[in-house]
Predict the 3D structure of the following.
Amino acid sequence: MINTQFYKDIYYNYVRPNLVYESVYDIDFELLYDDGIRHLFFDIDNTIISYKEDGVSLQCLNLFNSILNLDFDTVALISNNSSYDRVNKVAKQLKLPAVAFACKPFPFAMRRVLEDANLNPKECAFIGDQLMTDIILANTLGLKSIFVEPLDTSSVSKLRLLQYKVQESLLNKF
């Protein structure tokens, strides 16, 4: 017999995001700041730019300029992408620090970022498009987890498309 409570506990403690938005452009960053969030961490791929984009759009530049004007102590990029060139190019365009090949959901790289800067996890938010990497990482470390819908599902692999379908099912399940 399957213990459904076990799976619900896993979902509610690790997989379920604290907040869900259609895109990063829908997030009320002033409200996050007013709620005590001082450190923002963003996934890159399919969160702020699609996989097929080479750089950030003017809309994205404007968003991050407005975020930086809110006086968050930290705004950084944390990516699983192993292309340091891609991650550094986006980071340079946004004038933000970045970590490439972070191996999310494993907490090692993110924990090191938090510890090196002596950050309180309760003052941090992680924004990403994947439940199984970004949201699990945030929830594991006690950060506010913010899920955004993937920007573009038309140019992803079949495996990633399947992952997105599972995510959609999980978001509607409980």
Notes: The mean pLDDT is 91.
